[in-house]
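Q: what sequence does this backbone want?
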């Protein structure tokens, strides 16, 4: 990656710290479609009239063997796609009119979005750029980026030898525990993280959740979390000294959240997942400080 490209890519690298001092007017709640938000399932619009979800089912190409490099940037672990852009995985369909290529993926703990007021222990973001645009161009276009968000739930009784979708990623974490640690030539099967039940999602037009909070993102948020074990979750507490790395939730303005008409949004089922999350998260941060 040459220096110019690196500079461009850093424009969509997560930055945290004091959110009141973030650069850019958009980050100061001045705009209309800021992220993240709480998704109230009772307010979600089933898109029978294809107002927002106009392009059929989501279509994923090339996610089962992805070449990436990884870095611990002091705030999160970020995996960035390597090699020629033409071979990067792509997504289209659903709310996406164009093809979008995978640019990078990273982790937030605890989650940025929430469902019915309740957060998950972790949220993974898969950041995609409209395929025929550079990152710079995409950051100026109202649908320049597409980010898929996948929640993780921690299942305390999950056996450590049971396979989980994040196994391949966790394998690399011991090499990425200190700020600045990096590795290249990482091959991952990301398709395992992107559930095949792809009509179970929420989608809305929002923003980046880090400076400069550009309102250029089509969010696709999976309704059902993937499972990770307690041990796996604790691995992340060693990164970034356990500091939170999520943006606070934003006031609702022009946000309208849609879901495919075939999705059965089942609220009681959702709430069931979260009974122990508060304890888990408290435990997580306790572990960091001891
Ligand atoms: Zn993110």
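A:
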């Amino acid at each position: 990656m040459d220096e110019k490209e690196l500079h461009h890519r850093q424009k969509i690298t997560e930055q945290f710290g004091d959110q009141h001092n973030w650069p850019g007017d958009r980050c100061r709640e001045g705009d209309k479609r800021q992220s993240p938000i709480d998704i109230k399932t009772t307010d979600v619009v089933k898109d029978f009239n294809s107002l927002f979800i106009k392009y059929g089912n989501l279509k994923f190409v090339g996610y089962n063997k992805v070449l990436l490099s990884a870095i611990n940037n002091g705030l999160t672990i970020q995996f960035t796609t390597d090699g020629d852009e033409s071979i990067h995985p792509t997504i289209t369909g659903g709310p996406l009119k164009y093809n979008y290529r995978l640019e990078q993926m990273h982790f937030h703990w605890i989650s940025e979005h929430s469902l019915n007021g309740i957060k998950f222990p972790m949220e993974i973001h898969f950041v995609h750029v409209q395929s025929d645009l550079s990152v710079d161009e995409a950051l100026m276009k109202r649908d320049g980026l597409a980010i898929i968000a996948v929640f993780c739930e921690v299942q305390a009784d999950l056996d450590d030898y049971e396979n989980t979708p994040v196994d391949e990623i966790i394998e690399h974490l011991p090499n990425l525990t200190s700020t600045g640690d990096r590795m290249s030539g990482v091959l991952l099967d990301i398709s395992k993280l992107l559930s095949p039940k792809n009509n179970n999602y929420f989608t809305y037009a929002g923003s980046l959740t880090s400076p400069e909070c550009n309102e250029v993102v089509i969010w696709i948020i999976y309704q059902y979390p993937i499972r990770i074990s307690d041990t796996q979750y604790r691995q992340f507490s060693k990164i970034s000294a356990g500091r939170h790395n999520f943006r606070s939730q934003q006031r609702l303005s022009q946000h309208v959240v849609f879901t495919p008409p075939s999705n059965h949004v089942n609220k009681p089922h959702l709430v069931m997942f979260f009974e122990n999350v508060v304890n888990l998260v408290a435990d997580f941060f306790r572990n960091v400080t001891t």
